[in-house]
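Predict the holo structure. Ligand: succinic acid.
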Amino acid sequence: MAAPVKRDRLFIDNEWRRADSGETIAVANPATGEVIGTVPKGARAETASAIEAAARALPEWRRRTAQDRAAHMLRLHDALMDHRDALAAILTEEMGKPLAEARGEIAHGAGFFKWFAEEGRRIYGDIIPSPWADTRIVVSKHPVGVVGAITPWNFPNSMIARKLAAALGAGCTMVIKPASQTPYSALAFGDMAMEADLPAGVVNIVTGAASEIAAEMCENPALRKITFTGSTATGKKLAAQAGAHMKRVSMELGGNAPFIVFDDADLDKAVEGAMISKFRNSGQTCVCANRFLVQSSVYDAFSEKFAAAIAELKVGDGAEDGVTQGPLIDEDAVAKVEEHVADAARKGGEVIAGGARHALGGAFFQPTLIGGASSDMQIFRDETFGPVAAMFRFETEDEAIRMANDTEYGLACYAYTNDLGRAWRLNDALEYGMVGINQGLISTEVAPFGGVKASGIGKEGSKYGVEDYLDVRYALFGGLGR
Ligand code: SIN
């Protein structure tokens, strides 16, 4: 197949369609501010058509063997990898991340299809010893049905991949509503689905008005589950709306990750981890370290090394060679980052590096390091979602744990220590869905990604991730005696 291009139509029932109203949404390149195209402004009617198509495709898709579904999913994996460069170029153009990161994301996304192709073959049930004579209790797992996925702009490919792959492996069909900032990476899944010979209606993609598409997903009885990645505020509203119609939900929401550096840590490794955890995707990941808690005795040494590493970052258009920090997604994102920095400075924080909009203008912000941060600052409470690292001092392990857990969020956290006992104590005490010990990058398709507290419900990836797309049923077989 020819390399994927930026599709400007909805993908429903394996067909490319306009919105009924003919209305469109403009898509901009965050590095240049230029409009790079438009996509249809779909709404309730188009979402209903997509759900209908997914419901029509469901009986046949769920009836297939896991091996057969796996064959299509492996083809989808190969299609993504074959078109990796073209897909990465589309991703960088609409989202801004450096090309190398975009290529990494496509491979990460493709990995979910391989993983869940296999995992779909291991959806086992149980036989439970029955309390009654001449009976058997059989537990089996069944696809939930049609799933609605609402996905974010920060990982326009892999956030779709990890939902879609789990759904397909479980035998579900899907309607995807991508973020309006990054619809082209999502629509490319239409071409990938065709290349993988997926039957019509198994994957449908509707761009457009978020509130209307979400309302149709929540209210349409043919759709059985909603999976969402995005902010905690939106997730709470969506979960309430879905709950009113008794839909299952998976919610992968915001975080406020602590990154703890103990005095027994290897500081060079800690800085390496800090750079990836903080500055990957220009600080726009929900697992980004937001609060660097550094033990007083190594605070100055860590700060110096961290500032030196930050000075090496190269800010620019992600499509240019050597750029490691792209723009933020839009002006609102820059304004939030600016507000966090101003608030920290007002409350006594020291701006050690950066601290302002970048000379390139537009959505570019300087990679920033703030010292002497305190818990009354906004940055201690709220997810910054930008390239700002704030360092807080602590004295003891207990104090570090208390500070780390002093947040409504519970997605990811990180700790650097060479004390094995301490590492295990931290793993027990930190109230987070994911813990990186001496590691700044934790995302992989083989492990369960997801948070606790206000960071969400459910898991994505791994053997746990497929369960989110399955209903458990039990059957009591009676009258088995002679
Ligand atoms: C995120 O959900 O923002 C992070 C995704 C990842 O690390 O793969």
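DSSP finds 15 helices and 22 strands in the chain. The chain has a mean pLDDT of 98.
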